[in-house]
Amino acid sequence: MTEPEVSYPLTVLRTAAELRAATQTYRDEGKLIGLVPTMGALHQGHLALVDRAARDCGLVIASLFVNPTQFGEGEDFDAYPRNEADDIAKFDAHGVDFVYAPDAAEIYPAGLATTVTVSGITEGLCGATRPGHFDGVTTVVSRLFEHCAPDVAYFGEKDYQQYKVVQRLVEQLGLDIRVVGITTVRERDGLALSSRNAYLNPGQRRAAPAMYGTMFALAGRLHDGVDIAAQCAWGAQALLDAGFDSVDYFEICDADTLIPATGNAPNLRILAAARLGKTRLIDNMPVDPPD
Ligand code: AMP
Fold first, then answer.
1. Residue 274: CB within 6 Å of ligand 1?
2. Other residues' Cβ atoms within 10 Å of the Cβ of residue 195
3. Rounded Cα gap, residues 284 and 155, in angstroms
4. Scanning 15, 169, 188, 239, which has the fewest C-beta atoms within 10 Å of its C-beta?
5. Cα(79) to centroid of ligand 1, in Å?
6. In order of start, what are the domains of the chain with their CATH numbers?
7. pLDDT tens by residue, the chain, 291 residues
């Protein structure tokens, strides 16, 4: 049987120059331009960002680029799921106008010797266990901002540290871009949707929602005078008891600075990263303000 021909009513562009030319009329008309950066393997979490962009903006650009520089040595860059035709069909069904799917050479031309680094907020949590990861993120996001020139950019709270790092980048470079964070989309059992959930075997999949359940339980244990370090240790142990193989971190931090909390306070966030076999899952949750 021959494959059915796929037709894409939305436009797929591979270079910054093509994208600039294609979006110019919309800019001249003063349309608000929204950008949703993704690495593909789309699920409802990504599509929640796209839906919000389509609601807010007159023109939606979604990018599709598996960024090599944010993967460390031994991480899953080669194995990362890629299915461009499916992703484009999903973007189309959710109102994306332009898909920007550049080659690596368009983002990282030969000789490029500039890396964007945000310090401080990138050093703990995922920054501590994935050295160089956030330099890869901030560099690719800077390139995508330059190529797409959006008014608004949408990021998922699922990758909470990434969202806060990008907010910091935009503030500190004085970029005229509004960064909007979108609430995490979850499975019915609480597991945050992630492209990496596809790596889980059935036993690991059964254990995975414990990350949400443990954070939820912990949020209810925070009260004045609570020993934060003891609660985090309890959370990490609960993940191991549920079947996780190791815990990279289980922390309670200020939701804006991501500095670890020393006691109960307003505006805290619980953040965790742990491994089931080779699969590393991350999640986070706000803590209700103390009464
Ligand atoms: P990725 O393709 O993993 O780089 O993700 C692209 C964007 O989708 C990022 O801003 C992620 O934070 C966001 N995202 C991924 N999973 C979810 C989810 N379950 N809910 C909301 N946003 C998500």
1. no
2. 19
3. 14
4. 188
5. 18
6. 11-182 (3.40.50.620), 201-286 (3.30.1300.10)
7. 555 555 547 999 999 999 999 999 999 999 999 999 999 999 999 999 999 999 999 999 999 999 999 999 999 999 999 999 999 999 999 999 999 999 999 999 999 999 999 999 999 999 999 999 999 999 999 999 999 999 999 999 999 999 999 999 999 999 999 999 999 999 999 999 999 999 999 999 999 999 999 999 999 888 878 899 999 999 999 999 999 999 999 999 999 999 999 988 899 999 999 999 999 999 999 997 655
Six token digits for residue 138: 């901030």
- In order of 50, 220, 230, the CA distances from 191 in angstroms are 21, 19, 24
For the record, the structure tokens of 81 come out as: 């799921």
CA distance 160 to 239: 20
Residue positions annotated with a catalytic role: 46
For residue 248, CA distances in Å to 35, 156, 276 come to 31, 21, 11
- CA–CA separation, 3 and 82 (whole Å): 18
Q: How far is the CA of 140 from the centre of ligand 1 (A)?
A: 15
In which element (H, E) is residue 36 found?
A: strand 33-38
Record the pTM: 0.95
